[in-house]
């Protein structure tokens, strides 16, 4: 009987792995695949160790989930995904080179500039309201500007 239970439990873990893998394909986020791998490892462990209690299986799943996520994270740091727009999710770096208008005068090196439909704190040479400036960098949420 324990062998039937182990086979049944392994099939449940294998089904969970397949469902997590399919969910990753439907809603790509590069996260569920690592949980799917962990579930597949638990399925193999359940077949190899038929007397493994359910609590231990859940613990092994948790441990392998952490391990696979950390391995995946390291993998994507070492081998980043190529993209046609490397600044896609880096709004601050996308601003470099933009021409902006001073919204609050820049006095003693500090003021505000209009960026699109919003305003950002700015640092740069003194300038009155309405002066056109160019963003040269963004540091800690403050745009560094110079005359356009």
From TrEMBL:
<keyword id="KW-0472">Membrane</keyword>
<feature type="transmembrane region" description="Helical">
    <location>
        <begin position="6"/>
        <end position="23"/>
    </location>
</feature>
<dbReference type="InterPro" id="IPR002810">
    <property type="entry name" value="NfeD-like_C"/>
</dbReference>
<feature type="transmembrane region" description="Helical">
    <location>
        <begin position="30"/>
        <end position="48"/>
    </location>
</feature>
<dbReference type="InterPro" id="IPR012340">
    <property type="entry name" value="NA-bd_OB-fold"/>
</dbReference>
<feature type="domain" description="NfeD-like C-terminal">
    <location>
        <begin position="93"/>
        <end position="147"/>
    </location>
</feature>
<keyword id="KW-1133">Transmembrane helix</keyword>
<feature type="transmembrane region" description="Helical">
    <location>
        <begin position="54"/>
        <end position="72"/>
    </location>
</feature>
<protein>
    <submittedName>
        <fullName>Inner membrane protein YbbJ</fullName>
    </submittedName>
</protein>
<keyword id="KW-0812">Transmembrane</keyword>
<dbReference type="Pfam" id="PF01957">
    <property type="entry name" value="NfeD"/>
</dbReference>
<dbReference type="InterPro" id="IPR052165">
    <property type="entry name" value="Membrane_assoc_protease"/>
</dbReference>
<dbReference type="GO" id="GO:0005886">
    <property type="term" value="C:plasma membrane"/>
</dbReference>
């Amino acid at each position: 009987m324990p062998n039937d239970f182990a086979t049944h439990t392994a099939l449940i873990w294998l089904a969970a792995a397949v469902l997590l893998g399919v969910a990753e394909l439907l809603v790509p986020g590069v996260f569920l695949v690592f949980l799917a791998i962990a579930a597949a490892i638990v399925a193999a462990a359940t077949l190899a160790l038929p007397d493994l209690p359910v609590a231990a299986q859940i613990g092994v799943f948790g441990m392998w989930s952490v391990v696979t996520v950390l391995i995946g994270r390291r993998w994507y740091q070492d081998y980043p995904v190529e993209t046609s727009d490397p600044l896609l999710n880096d709004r601050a770096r996308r601003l470099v080179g933009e021409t902006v208008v001073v919204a609050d005068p820049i006095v003693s090196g500090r003021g505000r500039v209009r960026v699109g439909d919003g305003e950002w704190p700015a640092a740069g040479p003194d300038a009155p309201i309405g002066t056109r400036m160019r963003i040269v960098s963004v540091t800690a949420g403050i745009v560094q500007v110079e005359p356009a």
